[in-house]
Write the structure tokens for this entry.
Amino acid sequence: MSETSIDAAPAVAPSAAKPPFNVLIVGVGGQGVIMVSKVLAALAQWRGFEVKQSEVHGMAKRGGSVFSHVRFGKRVWSPTIAKGEADVLVALEWAEGLRWLPFLKPDTGIFICDTKRIVPPFACLNRTPGAPMRYSRETADEVASYVAEGYAIDATTMAEELGNERAANVVLLGALSNALDFPVADWETTVADFVPKKTVAVNLEAFRLGRTWVAEARAPAADVPLVHAPVAASYAPRLEINADWCKSCDICVKLCPERCLKLNAERVAELAAPEKCTGCRLCEWLCPDFAIRVHLDPQAGAEGTAR
Amino acid sequence: MFTDAANFDVRDYLRKEMMPHFLCPGCGHGIALRALLWALHDLAIDKDKLAVVSGIGCAGRLSAYIDANTFHTTHGRPLAYATGLALARPDLHVVVISGDGDCLAIGGNHLIHACRRNLKITCLMLNNEIYGMTGGQVSPTTSESRLTTTTPLGNNEPNFDACALATAAGAGFVGREVTRHVPKLKELIKAGLEHPGFAFVEVLSDCTEVFGRKNDLGSSPEMIMRQKSEIRPSAYRNTVETPFHSTSLPTGILTQNDRPEYGAAHRRAAAAVVAKGAK
């Protein structure tokens, strides 16, 4: 046996073949994670690749954590992507994106993320819109330092502007399409095949929007193109309580979700903890005596209070 | 949602000189009144084009607090007055506020015939399971085994399902909601106001001072929280398998059909008679 024949053997072995391309798509149940992965898998199959897709669904339901692994190449063996192996991570929700960051290839991985936040009830410490969170607090700039290439897209607002908030996943699919060299026409045909017939037009528009957004963001190659999550409009809730009409029934005190009301010495409702009030209006609605009126005064640049 | 609610100030629709109202602390009727006024606000119904007719009882008194054309009528007869009003003035939005005793016992006959005619009236029945104003006597909707002044050993009569009654009598729109869910109640009343025929809306309200105290149901916050644990969504509506039970009532829109409205037919017939007389 000569040394050359031994050297020749690995050339045909699977380990030497080009590894498959790994795309990890994550989000919250109901956003369309599976739909995005189906489009990608079908397109890759159509282009002649072997595709393996594995997903979690059903158990997560609406509002739960959902992920889908899509792997395609000449030959694909494992159906799942190992940590640090994903070429692209597409996240339809900000916190889910952060959760799956370790799966991205540290040196070349591309991170595409919607800045939308869906805070689970158990992580919701303060319901005031715009209040700082202890949950997924990393800013877009901080995340940029973890990844090789990152795009934080406000896809939900972009889709809303097109007229259908639910097309946000297709905006991100458009962003993803830049990372793969499939022809645009093929992408659009596949998207049109998978979305409901009535929404084909808006989804194609969403796809083009996402694709051009990333193409434009890529143009100045020097700095990492990231946008910040939009800051919710801040306001200060103020309660106007009519002491003459209050009959001390205690409904507002006991049913306030933040427990910020109490009956004072005269047995009249009063706002005891104004910093906790989120302006949800439950007290106004449930007051049988019309004694409470909630005003939401606009407050520029004010910050909510973290608890 | 915030901006939607922000534009509605209930005080714009109240006769402020009549306030505070006469209802007991924690009475659910005040919440129901807010939901009605909010629905009227959402539909941008002009106060001058609104006529509120009410009967006798705690619920009957609510019309006095609404800053619109109001009519406080005899016991059980608000639907009879409203029928005449709606036939004579089809340009008005006629809303009837009635209690469970007013609507089902004293005025039971008027209710079934109003449902049968399907005239464009929105009927709000505030169900607190008791005659509150007269001292807490048993009403047709009092649940079995409940204590009242006339049933000191517990009510042993079966009670009415008012929504099933209205549906059977032919009402075009029938719905039920609890006072706890104010925005949902508002949406239901709004749907009833928009319905072209007779709309019957049962509001499950709380009588805290008479019914709640006698039956040891706690104070008003506890009674409102009880609504959450005991009222089921409309998916569990009454079937043979799950018969009517006062603690598992279906809510939401229970019936909605497009039976012909009576007012138009009446006016056509009247016009034909007039034309015949002119010949």
Q: What stands out?
A: The two ends of chain B are 59 Å apart (CA to CA). Chain B touches chain A at residues 2, 5-6, 9-11, 14, 19-21, 23-31, 34, 179-180, 182-183, 208, 219-222, 224-225 (CB under 8 Å). Residues 235-244 of chain B have pLDDT under 50 and may be disordered.
